[in-house]
Amino acid sequence: MGRHKKNNGASSRQKKTDGTSSGENLRFIIGLILIVFALYMLVVFISYLLTGKADQDSLSMKNPDTAFAYENWGGRFGFKVGHYFIFHGFGLGAFFIPLIIGAFGLALVRVKYFRLWKNVMRFLLATVLVSVILGYFAGQSTFLGAGPGGEFGFFIADRLNGMMGKVGTGAVLLVLTIAYLIFALHVSTHTIRRPIAAMARAGAATLSGE
């Protein structure tokens, strides 16, 4: 009797060690779904850059049931996803969003080659920063309908310009970009110091007339 219970305990521990429990299987399937969806988003985002202009005509249709030949590689749903995240969202910065979703998926399938929250924060900050920088430089251009920074990037850049002017906003974005390179991408300060030193040397030479 005691041996039977002992064997059952060993079998239960073996099941947990092998990762064959129902909870572990569900975790793996959810992670796999997130990874596949992240890849799908990446594909439809690329397609949106190439075919989004042609698919824009579908937005003006009064009857949503009217047949429309979508050119996006993900069909109607792919176009809607791309339009939401790129046009209404972060522009080219939206390409970091599939990386965020994929990071969660890899964590759920227990891929241990990276630190989840460190990479999620890195990609999330890159999404916002790239969107605002592109919105600052390009504004609300015809590219992608709302500009390369999307509606979000244009809105934030426009608000910052109203508060601090173009010069002040540019200075803030420059400092944030350098901080991101140092803390998120671990770029050495010596690497960043070189172009600053070169500019300072050129300015000093100009002022001295050399």
Describe this structure in words.
By secondary structure, the chain is mostly helical. The chain has one domain (about 20-210). Helices cover about 75% and strands about 0% of the residues. It has helices at about 1-20, 20-55, 75-90, 95-110, 115-140, 150-185, 190-210. It is flat and about 70 Å long.
Features:
210 residues; 0% strand
Total count of domains? 1
Helix fraction? Answer: over 70%
CA radius of gyration: 25 Å
Based on secondary structure, the structural category is mainly alpha
The dominant shape is flat
- Spell the H/E element sequence: HHHHHHH
What is the averaged pLDDT score? 87
Strand content: under 5%
Which regions contain 5 or more consecutive residues with pLDDT less than 50? Answer: none
First-residue to last-residue Cα separation: 96 Å
Number of distinct helices: 7
Q: Tally the beta strands.
A: 0
Major sheet characteristics = none
Layout of strands and helices, then pairs:
Blueprint: H1 2-18, H2 22-55, H3 75-90, H4 97-108, H5 116-138, H6 150-183, H7 189-208
Helix pairs in contact: 2-3, 2-4, 3-6, 4-5, 5-6
Question: In a few lines, what is going on in this structure?
Answer:
It contains seven helices and no strands.
